[in-house]
Amino acid sequence: MIHVGFVVYLMTLKHLKENNLELHFGSIPLGQVPGVEIGDEFHLRAALFMLGLHRQLQGGIDYFKHDGRLLARSIISSGSSRYSDKIGNSQVLIYSGSGTPEKDQKLEYGNLALKNSIDAQNPIRVIRGFEETQSSGCRSSKGRKAMRYVYDGLYLAEKFWRKKNDNGFNVIMFQLRRKQEQPELHLKQVRLRTSITFSDICIEDITSGKEKTPIPVVNTIDEDSPSSFTYSKEMIYPPKYSSTPSKGCECIGGCTDSIKCACAVKNGGELPFNGRGAIVQAKPLVYECGPSCKCPPTCHNRVSQHGIKFPLGVFKTRSMGWGVRSLSLIPSGSFVCEYVGELLKDEDAQKRTNDEYLFAIGNNYYDAALWEGLPNSIPELQKSMPSEEVNEVNYTVDASIFGNVARFINHSCTPNLYAQNLLYDHGDKSMPHIMLFASEDIPPLQELTYHYNYTIDQVYDSNGDIKQKICLCGSIECTGRLY
Ligand SMILES: C[S@@+](CC[C@H](N)C(=O)[O-])C[C@H]1O[C@@H](n2cnc3c(N)ncnc32)[C@H](O)[C@@H]1O
Asked: Which of 74-88, 296-310, 452-466 has the largest mean confidence?
């Protein structure tokens, strides 16, 4: 049997390799990692790696090269009996360098980096590692030994010396001092906000291998698992639907000329994405290049069609059922995922008994605020300005039976994602793809949310009575009602 931790480890490596995320993590600054706070607790080395907290999957010292010399960035101080309950008690940490007990330790690699950091006085993240026995979770695995990692804060390296170990070999010892003006870390008060244990992983990959990056489901709240549905990466169109192909561009080498590129023209004479693939501005409708375009798959105007890039996880929230969070930092403007499901005519969607996973395309397509301020000089967009009255058929996506990870994303009154209507593989403006983009930099492990855009007192049940739902998003700007 393959150990869950090992699967997560492989998943992480696979993901990092495929998405070049090592580079992304490399850009995480020295010192504090956005979104990670003192006392945050982790149960997987892979999680520390993915967050950029400690970029070594095995080594205790994480280091990097700066101006030609190695510097330490973080250390994991494990299994020590020298710490009392109040592990912030002593501001001084004595850390033995890396190496095996049967050989003299050398001042190389991580040890050299730690020594150099004494001169450089750069902040070093300290993560405390503890061994514990597992006892609970959605798949109980009582009695299994596992590690627990707690982020302790930033330290400065002070000095090093050598001493003999019990076998008579040299060990390099380092003294680090905790930086002042940081909250103390009391072991008994360690928050479980970011806790993920082996036994909390209910499903290793809810996509069953359909997405390039596995999406684990984690439950630290109760014994529940998500109710069953069929994971689909793509929208499921009505049976008799035949797509209207959109006219493509002729940019054989890629779309760079915003005057000649037909797709840039459709977007108002500019490409909607910047050089890093981030969307520049929310628009009622965005056109990516598609199958009828001559440009290559690497064209800058093909972003969301390439699918999910950032590692995501489904988790059980305290009050809103299941939710989704990112396992890494998502820069503002990045594509996150599509809202996928069965595409139904509104009247058919009304007949569905489960309305929890409906996304009415019209909800944001006809949002006048999106159309305001668009220059008249964008003829293609002005032509596509939809009107609820003249549009014969309106569509809703139902993700209750078939859907992807987006079906688990909750509403917030102060969301960090927004839904962008987007066309690339067909030209039918009444059924654009619903692509979710980050509207701000999203730190690792923060819940992903978008605004459901319901109009209050405009949602009806099958008897025609107004339905109401209290919003539990918890935002200080919460308006109180989802609908
Ligand atoms: C698309 S699903 C989101 C995933 C859902 N939480 C689950 O457990 O599968 C939409 C449903 O989640 C719940 N929900 C989402 N956001 C909410 C919020 N801010 N307040 C209350 N319930 C919310 C509502 O029951 C809503 O109908």
From this structure: 296-310
Among residues 153, 170, 198, the one where a domain terminates is 198
Residues 6+ apart with CB under 8 A from 27: none
C-alpha dist (Å) from residue 260 to 266, 273, 425: 11, 17, 20
- One domain for residues 172 and 239: no
Predicted ipTM > 0.85: yes
Atom of ligand 1 nearest to the CA of 412: 19
Provide the pLDDT for residue 123. Answer: 96
What does the alpha-carbon distance between residue 175 and residue 160 come to, in Å, rounded to a whole number?
A: 6
Residues 27 and 86 in one domain: yes
Query: Residue 409 Cα, ligand 1 centroid: separation in angstroms?
Result: 7
CA atoms within 13 A on the CB side of 297: 3
Residues 229, 146, single domain; the answer is no
- CA 356 to ligand 1 centroid distance, Å: 7
Confidence of residue 133 (pLDDT cuts 50, 70, 90): low
Q: CB-hemisphere CA count at 13 Å for 288?
A: 30
Share of the chain above pLDDT 70, in %: 78
Which residues span the domain enclosing 85?
4-198
What pTM was computed for the model?
Answer: 0.66
CATH classification at residue 328: 2.170.270.10
pLDDT digits (tens, 9 = 90+) for 38-58: 888 787 777 787 777 888 877
Please give the distance, rounded to the nearest whole angstrom, from the Cα atom of residue 478 to the centre of ligand 1: 15
The mean pLDDT of the chain is: 82
d(CA 308, CA 464): 38
Instruction: Write down which residue in 172, 198, 224 finishes a domain.
Output: 198
Nearest CA to ligand 1 atom 22: 320
The residue-averaged pLDDT of 334-354 equals 94
Interval between CA 391 and ligand 1 midpoint (Å) = 29
Shortest-distance Cα residue to atom 23 of ligand 1: 320
Distance (Å, rounded) from C-alpha 292 to C-alpha 311?
30
Do the beta carbons of residue 385 and residue 429 sit within 8 Å? Answer: no
